[in-house]
Design goal:
single chain; 288 residues; mainly alpha; Endonuclease III, domain 1; 14 helices; 3 strands; DNA-binding
Length: 288
Amino acid sequence: MPDLAAPLIEWYRDNARDLPWRRAGFGAWGTLVSEFMLQQTPVSRVIPLLEAWLERWPTPADLAAAPPADAVRHWANLGYPRRALWLHRAAVEIRDRHDGIVPRDVDDLLALTGIGDYTARAVAVFAYGDRHPVVDTNTRRVLARAVDGRSQPGPAAKRDLADMSAILPASVPDAAVVNAAAMELGALVCTARAPRCEACPLSDRCAWRAAGYPDTGDTRVKQARYEGSDRQARGAVLRVLRDAPAHDVASTDVVPDWPDLVQRDRAIDSLVADGLVEAVYGRLRLPR
DNA sequence: CATGCGTGGTT
DNA sequence: TAACCAAGCAT
């Protein structure tokens, strides 16, 4: 396999975006919060809410001391509000089990609510500078093309970590840069839809390019239609509860004009099951 | 391993 | 303009 690390490091030095979580001294808590928010939400929508969040809750203990409802409310329209609940739970776990300090050990990080293979290693590498493979969807696409000669990556798999490890340099700081650079390249150049191969530092050693950009198929799962979905109904219910001035609404007054009231009630039930909503005496509210 | 889970910008 | 896409996770 050709060396991918050296050109990635050089390219990153000249092309990395100036993002808040890359500032010196941003802190492990800031990194952790940013990674939660970036799970499936674009950078441009995360930045303003991240900064407001960290001003309000500068440490894990600050968030842990707040009711979960505040976390869900301040998550605003970032989407997938379960992440707000999970981040709050993780803050409580960090306070109770780690003396309020974001853990550095990958297994300790993996044990926190809402943290999986990607986020655990992203915190260990980007906040603490340790040497681990960090694999997100951008990295998987870069490796699928440059190494495997495929047009799109397959579904995420455990194997991805070993594949990334195979291109990491021995130097600890260099390995961190390569992790960041692979993600950044996938975000800016080796994109899903219209890759800018003419601007790619790996073009002279890319297996997909060498093979003539074959369409090797796309096994990624398509997102279900949003319009009319239960997810849309859940979003509408939760929006009402987030914005309720009294923080408390009668069940029957939540999106009463929803076109399918069976679906609305199913959405409420599932939100209660997820812990995102509490039902008390026929009224609904965010969890305290 | 497949599925469900928000929201809004881009093509 | 409907479909696509976005630093995943738990179950």
